[in-house]
Recover the amino acids of this structure.
């Protein structure tokens, strides 16, 4: 029994040494990054022009992002529906949960398909 406290002290010491080593490594990396400010103040000497896109370009980009996000979320719900259905094992509550997830996936895919139409309506409202 007297060996257990010594073993725990030994383990605690090793953990402390590892933590100190990791902390020192992170501190060294931060110091290295902060010691070379040349990249932060780099100047090419050329003027920088910030351009704003026109409304049709912004709506087109929004359409692309919206369709991608909706399709990704719908795919996630489709996968969840498959997992719920496969693990249902005849449980009616789990099957209903799978059906609900499948319905959400179909709604998501429908919205992804209708996204261009909805954004055209928005573009017509704002006058683009």
């Amino acid at each position: 029994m007297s060996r257990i406290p010594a073993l725990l002290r030994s383990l605690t010491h090793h953990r402390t040494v590892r933590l100190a080593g990791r902390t020192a490594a992170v501190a060294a990396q931060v110091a290295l990054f902060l010691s070379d400010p040349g990249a932060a103040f780099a100047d090419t000497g050329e003027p920088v022009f910030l351009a704003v896109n026109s409304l049709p370009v912004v709506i087109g980009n929004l359409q692309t992002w919206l369709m991608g996000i909706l399709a990704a979320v719908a795919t996630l719900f489709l996968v969840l529906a498959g997992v719920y259905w496969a693990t249902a094992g005849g449980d009616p509550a789990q099957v209903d949960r799978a059906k609900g997830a499948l319905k959400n996936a179909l709604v998501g895919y429908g919205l992804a398909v209708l996204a261009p139409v909805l954004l055209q309506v928005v573009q017509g409202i704002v006058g683009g």
Notes: The mean pLDDT is 79.
